[in-house]
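User: two proteins, same treatment. go.

Assistant:
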Amino acid sequence: MLVSYVKARAEGLNFTAKVGILSRVERYIVLLPLLLFNQPFLAVAIIAVLGNFTALQRIACVRTQGHERMRKAREAKEYIH
C-alpha cells in the first residue's frame, strides 16, 4: 500500500509520518465489520479512498518537515559566513 511506503520512505530519510486519517489500526476497524456483514467491496472502496487521502496527508507532512529542515540548514549556513 502507498500509505506504508510513504511512511517507510519518510522514516528512511529521518522524517516522521505518523499522521493521517487511516492508519493500520483504522484500516482493520473499517475492514472487519464490513467483512462480517459481507460487504467486501464497500470495505475495499473505503480503504482505497481513505488510504490515498492518508498518503497525501503524510506526503504533505513530510514536505513541510523537509522545508523546515532546509530553512534551518540555510540559516546555519548564513551564520557561518
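Protein 2:
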Amino acid sequence: MDLEENSMHQPSALTEMHGEDLSEASIHELDERITILNAEIVRVKKIIVDKKASHKSAENFFKS
C-alpha cells in the first residue's frame, strides 16, 4: 500500500470534526469554533481563486 492509498483510509480532521459531539461545549467555545471555521473558509476560497488564476495563466501561455 502506498502513501496515497494509506491517506485515503485515514479520517481527515474535517471528517472527525464534523461528527464531534458539541453538546457539552459552551456558547463561547461554539462561537470561537465558528470564527475559526469562517477564517478557514476564507483561506480555502483564496487558495481556490489563486489556483484558478494560475491555471488560467498556464492555459493562456500554451494557447499563444
